[in-house]
Structures are given as C-alpha cells and as structure tokens.
Specification:
With 403 residues, the protein is mainly alpha-helical. The chain is 79% helix and 0% strand. It has a single domain, classed as MFS general substrate transporter like domains (Growth Hormone, Chain: A, Up-down Bundle). Keywords: Cell membrane, Membrane, Transmembrane, Transmembrane helix, Transport.
Amino acid sequence: MEYVGEGQKYLGKKGLIALIALLSAFVPLSTDLYLPALPAMANFFGVTADLVNLTLILFFIFFAAGTLLWGPLSDKYGRKPILVAGLTLYVISSVLCACVTDVYQLILFRILQAVGGSAASAVATAIVKDVYHSRDRESVLAIVQSMVMISPALAPVLGAFMLSFTTWRGIFWALAAIGLISLAGTLAYKETISRRYTGNILQSLCRLGTVARNPGFSSLAIVFTLTSVSTMAFVASSSYIYEDGFGLSPQMYSYYFALNAIGLLAGPMLYVKLSARFERKRIINACFATIALSGILVFFMGQISPIVFALSILPATIGGVCSRPPGTNLMLEQQKEDTGSASSLIGCTMTIMGSIGMLLVSFSHGSLIPAIGILNVATGLLCLVLWQVLSKQSFVKPIQDTV
C-alpha cells in the first residue's frame, strides 16, 4: 500500500488509520450509544417519543450543516486546527448534555455536539485523500469503514450495559471521554495537507459551490448517499421495533442490533475481496439489487419474530456498506482539488439522506416494519436505476479496475 503523506512521527501509519477511523465514527458513536436509552429518556422527561427523537434528527441535520463549514475551512487553515476546534466544542457540549434538566436543553446541546463532531467527519475523509492515492485509497477506505462499523455493533451493546449501572447521563459522559481521546490523537497528528487555499474565508466557503457544480461529483453523491435513507430509518426505529414491537429488553435489543451490525463490519471488507475478482460496476449493481430484495423480505416476513426481522434486514445492511468504498473513492476522484469541500459535501449529503429516512419512518407508527421494507425496496431500485444511467455518462470518471 502506497503511503504518500508526510510521516506521522507520533501516530505512525497504523495510528493514523486508527485516528481516521475514530474520527469517521463520530456519527454512529454519537447516536447508537444512546439508542437503547431513548424510550427511558422519554419517560424521564415526561414527553413523547417524537420529541425525544428530535435529539437524534436535529443532530443529523446540524451535523450535515457543520460539515459544510469545517471542510472548506480545513482546505484554508489545515486539517489539524479545524479538528482541534471542532473536538473541543464536541467535548464541552457532551458534558452539557450530561447535565441537562429538561429535553429542550438536551436538544440545544445535542445541536452544539453535532456541530463540533461534524469537524471530525468532514476532515477524516479529506485526510484519506491527502495521504493515499487511487486504488490504495479505496483499500484504506474499506479498512477505515470496517473499523468504523464496529461502533454500531458495539455501541448499543455498551449503551445497554451502561444502563444497567448508570442512567442516560452516563452515556453522554462516555461520549465526552471519546471526544477527549480523539482530541489527544489529533494533537499527536502531523498536518497532511500539501497545499492550502489562499482565498479569504468567504471565498473558501464558496468552493462548496464549485464542487457542487461538478456534475460528475454531484450526481454520484446523490446515488451513493441514497442508501442512508433506508439505513438510518432502520437505526432510528430499531429500538422501538425490538423493545416496543417485539417486547425485548434494552439488553436483548442491543444483541439483535449487534447481529445486524455484523453486516456493517463485514460489508467493506467483502468489497475488497470481491473487487479482486469482479468489475466494480457489477459489484455496485449487486449491492443495490440486494438492498431491494432485502426490503421485500422485511416487508413480507419481518413481523414473524425478532430473529427473522434481523436476518431479513441484514442483506440490505451488507449491500449498503459494501457499495461505500468504491462510491466514496469514485466521488473523490471527480475532484482534483478542494478535497475538504468535497469531503464536506459527501458527509452532508449522506447525513441529509439519513435525516430524510428518519423523518419518513417517524410517520409510520404502528407499521414500522413494513415501512422499513418499503424504504429498502424503493432505495435499492432507485439507486440501481440511477447508477445504470450515470455509469454511462461521459462526465463521470470511470472506476479503474485492475482485475
């Protein structure tokens, strides 16, 4: 694997990949860790589940907005200063979340937490492009995303375990600790950007428009982030499906969620194995088709039992994350410069799509499982059709296969 960035004196190559993975995991860590506590939080504050879900939905919305700020600024000021600023805000807001006395305070501080944490997500992908080239970048993205996906597998289990000896407040203290660890890693990180943008702040932010107007980048961003609609719809509704729908305890819910999250861990590495034998276009086609077929299984069989539901949604999970390494690499390849802006737009679009999924499923009280099935069918088919069209367009740089 070719390493083209400046040497990391303190982190080393493996330490840098670990830091990138931790920074990339801020979304699942900040959401999945407290998923088992959502029903209990609604009871604690004496409010409806919809109001507590705002702490999840608004987190994603402001996380998306934050990436649009931090990414371009990292092109101008460097990756490290932006990470230090964002992570500091994340730690402070996490502490404040742990100390709130009503749900509206929690919503406010979750917004601040989202803005701070978005710096980590925006800069992480930019660092990958700073340091690695072409196919090596694709392999690193797969490794990082597999490491990142450990957090959805472990976070609900850890969150449920924490709830056995602490309250939901302890979960936010844990998030503050994760922020401090990331901040320590950032202080040890050596800057990787080779050339900084020389315009003023406003001009730097305007580079987002330059990247967005690239038809190859923007069209691919829509296709490869659409899978977040069905993925985040499942994440947002999973605790209600397993706990309220199937009557499971928070601990049992975490085990079923972890079973499904195995697919999140295996998907990117499965892509690496498949890409050594098959064309990337065919792999992507298969991923999108798998999502749709999984949705059919969920719709017709998901209500039988919790294990049947978990096994029915598992193929969609694998298909969605298996398409991410080539999708992310292909999007980055559309831009020679403005890496931070491109990374921001990828993260922002993905988060917006996820928020749309959570909003759609919130309108499906009493029929969550069929709604999840329909969303997966629609997402898989739409992605498949759009990918078939875009892969033939001259303005989209093709994936370079080496098989």
